[in-house]
User: Fold this.
Amino acid sequence: MNDASHLTLLAADDQHHAPGLVWAYHAAPGKAPEPLAPRDIEAALASADGWVWLHVDLVDRRAHSWVSHACALPASAHAILEGHEDSLVLAHENGVVHGISADLHGEIAHQSTTIGRLHFAVSERLLVTGRRHPLAAVEEVHTALAAGLRPATAFELFEMLVMAFCKTTSLRLATATKRLDAVEDHLVTERLANERRQLKDVRRLAVSLHRPIAALAALFQGEDRSAWNLSADAHEVLRRLAARLERLDREVVMINDRAGLLQEELAAELADESNRSLKALAVMSALLLPGTLIVGIFGMNTGGLPFAESPSGFFLAMLLAAGATGLFYWLLLRAGANLRF
Assistant:
């Protein structure tokens, strides 16, 4: 899903009121969230009840200027919403939590594994988010709001965004786990095909997910939030997100470690198969050496060769070559050579 499938499209004249705005929602206490027209945003922000969600496209350079004019946010939050920084960060100022989170790109034709950035600033009544590319979790929550989802506060809405990212990532990891199970079954039964490529795909996914998820988990766990001027519910939301991101990071690490072990086992199996093939070639070459020597001797164009005048000379020479090969094979067995492959 992408922004072209919005359930509520902005009218053309509304773009002049809110450049870069993708959508806006307002939820009054006890009521379902409703799409908010740009001309009504100022009144909704001035209201003392409910919450407002503004989602903007950071590709439009006018978006930040409009957000700065419309929303009373700290300077550090406005700096985040400019969209110039891509490093994951989490900070607080004057009751506003702001930073940069991660999310998977939202694609129409396939499930993307590309990690994007979600810039956000959230307080008790306001959530402002921005992105440069459609994001899967944002689209999922947007669809859920249109279907009647009712977050009580802007912090709960922000929690749903991060949880949707965790859910989408877990689904990707579940698919990767099934692929690892199939590879493991093929390794056990020695029915190898394109397992190396599958393992590389899984490890590529795990590595690309581990970096942002580990960074997010560290940010949510490492920050000392005791001095943050937030409500008890907001602190609880941040604690739940920290715990969920930590579990998700462990899932990614487990998938990556398992894929690495299977890669090592697959490499050992392929090396063993290659060694068996080389051993077979070596044994066959060794057994053919005596016969090749005999045939080479009889192929010399010199006088006095045995059986040269005999009508049965060819068969006698072949019999001698076969006997030499058999004698060599017997000597190898007596010497304890392992000729099985």
